[in-house]
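Researcher: Please translate sequence to structure tokens.
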Amino acid sequence: MPPPARPAIPLPRRAFVAGMAAAALSPHPVAAAARPGRIVSLNACLDVILMRLVGRERIAALSRYSRDRYGSTIAEEARALPFTRGTTEEVAALRPDLVLGDQWGGERIAASLARLHIRVERFDVPATLAASLDQVRRVAAVVGEPARGEALVRTIETTLRQSAPPPGRRPVSTLVFMPGGFVSGPGTLMDEMMTRMGLSNAAARYGLSGSAMLPLERLIADPPELLLTGQPWPGSPGWAERTMEHPALDRLSPRMRRAVFPERLLFCGGPVLMQTARTLAAARRSVETRA
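Model: Translation complete:
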């Protein structure tokens, strides 16, 4: 069977770019709600948090992006659960007690569901680790599982501590380079994760901040020690994917080590940060071992 056609820009990537341009969610204490029995998630990142907090019997549906094995870290698990494309009619038919949505594009459906007296809680894309952990706590509160939320936060924090390098270790100059030259500069959650894992974000020396595009020529002229690139999708890669596989990058091998950094680790915080931390730490160690 031929692989499915890949959209030019997957929605999770659009969500990430839009979210990084927005302010992070301010941490507000949220009182624990009654435990809703039927929960619908309309956002790929909220899908991941929800799966870690409640039993499968309480999930009425996840977003359709939860099943995308290239963009989601829970694709295999999600295939056993219902999903929704996020239309008002489809969500209302599920008779949810609670709908989890996002701030950057969910105003219309939130208003429509509110008119049907369906509770909707909306979340921003966090731009810092602290905001990401606060988001886990807030999701836990609205689904009625504050204790599970705190336990998940502790697990994430423990994983980050265990993945971090010993104090005093020299940071490794690193660039996370995605299709089309997309990079995460200072002021992003990825930048903070890189710093914690002993990596110095090379995007800063190119004068970039936030979510930005780096021309391949600039990368080749001044390469980092470590280049982390995404994985091409099946079939003939498009222009964006060919940027990551340009032959000129191979000629930098004596000066620059390359490793794979799956795109799905770029989109979300929360529980995904544990996989992100381990992947970044393993890449850092590959450079240290080589030296």
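Researcher: Any highlights?
Model: Confidence is low (pLDDT under 50) at residues 1-33.
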